[in-house]
Amino acid sequence: MSELNRTHDPARASWVDSAQAPGSDFPLQNLPFAAFRRRGSSEGYRGGVAIGAQVLDLAPLALLGGWPGAVQTALAAAAQPALNALMGLPGAVRSALRAALSEALERGSPREAALRAHLVPQVDAEFTVPAAIGDFTDFYASIHHATAVGRMLRPEQPLLPNYRWVPIAYHGRASSVRVSGVDFPRPHGQVLRANATVPTLEASRLLDFELEVGVYVGPGNAPGTAVPLASAEEHVFGLCLLNDWSARDVQAWEYQPLGPFLAKNFATTVSPWVVTLEALAPFRAPLARPQAEPPPLPYLDSAANRAGGAIDLTLEAWLESAAMRAAGVQPQRLTRSNFAAAWWSIAQMIAHHSVNGCDLRPGDLLGTGTQSGPAPEEAGSLLELTLGGRQPLALPGGETRAFLEDGDRVILRGWCERAGCARIGFGSAAATVLPARA
Prior knowledge:
This protein is an alpha+beta fold.
């Protein structure tokens, strides 16, 4: 796990004034990465770092010279159209880049004049998925979500016996992962309607969001080798927000016996910014489990993971309907939860994913699964919030929602905040549901 260092000092400020704005997601202590270009241009995408309301363009920085060798190497990797090469560098090299950028962006830095020319306002930037994602695996790491959904499907046994022992996951579809702002049409699929004996192919009526955290893999592991729990976080580049949109009616018909397929592979939305684990070091939390619960198997258990494997990350989902947008009404918050309530840690997901010899590669994406909290209002999906659609939510203007309607825009937000620390934000992940195509 990353240790605290000078980059975390909350007293440090940047010469980019907006980095000190109250409630900013991107102070000097954050410095998340993205792949971007100037909006409307034909420029190639390249790496950038958020600082306040600006993006620092990393591609030209290598030409400035005067950087230590490790930083020069990392800047060259960051200049590529996707961040896979940067993600695959050793942790010490990536940490050296973050430290050098922190020094260069600090108030009073001699590099201020040179770097100012390479700032791009975030409002003038467009983003793409940060990595060329080779594989996407979605976990089921919230015991509260698993229990709530299980209670609807199997009232007699809401939580299956393997959940407490195995980090459950399925392999998703990397090709349909899209960056925030890319809208998508309502999906089609086979559904079996109530009282029907034959399924039909139709547009989903029960479209849902899922409030998740995304994990980008850093350096990979060789085929046939397992990543030990103690070094698992060395194989993580950083985290993002992730919405794994779900067609619940399609899912209900197809998920047995092999799990999700068309119900989830039509769209996954990720935030453009990847927050490094190093930036999140001040917000580590114990991985708490009730004392009566069985301990994980040894390969998934350690004192360090129990003491600090969780991350105190607040997560929210907001909804803006087409009618709200037309009337100028602000989005309404649907839920707030916290990633610290997850049953499985990031390190445990990495260790289990590779224990059979599966090789992870830089830029692979892991989803944590829907992050619901213990209280009903902390549920991370409409499926839970509305009890399967039986108790619709009230929206401004007299609208209600059991599941998502055409024109609905869902916005995910996340941040870490703690007394004595700088606030670390994730930006947002948003997309709008378009009408189904013929």
